[in-house]
Amino acid sequence: MDPQASVLIVDDETFIRQILARIVSREGYQVRQACDGHDALDRLSQASCDIVISDIKMPNMDGIALLSEIKSRHPEISVILITAYAGEYSAQDALRAGADAFIAKPFKNVEIAETLREMLRKNLQSCTEASAPTPQPK
Question: 51-55 and 6-10: which strand pairing?
Fold first, then answer.
């Protein structure tokens, strides 16, 4: 794991943010929190992060709108969407909208930890591939 990896948790429910923050910090990641999509965008304008974990159903700006804004402003950030409304939002809907992963509530701690590790592994792989020299034609 990258000791500098940071995660922004976005959820309008304080209790859920605190649970996620505990899980993420136990994994050794830096954690920041935001209470809605607008707050998240403000925080990202001050300091970027590696991964955003966002609830879908929130007041002011929902997670799908936030996802769209993040991907247009910060395409390098991985976004994991979570929701208690899995009947209303499917993993396919979230992935089609541009999410890197989807987790239904209630979630298991290990599910969050494994998804974070997978996102960071993909990010590292993308960075490695991007920095590799391009083969020159002979």
Answer: parallel
Q: Name the nearest CA neighbour of 56 among 40, 45, 72, 67.
A: 67
Domain extent listing, the chain: 6-130
Give the span between the Cα atoms of 21 and 15, in whole angstroms: 10
State the pTM of this model.
Answer: 0.86
Angle at 70 between CA 67 and CA 71, to 5 degrees: 85
Q: Domain 6-130 in CATH: superfamily?
A: Response regulator (3.40.50.2300)
pLDDT under 50: residue ranges of the chain: 1
pLDDT by residue (tens digit) across 65-86? 999 999 999 999 999 999 887 6
Cis amide bond preceding 133, omega within 30: no
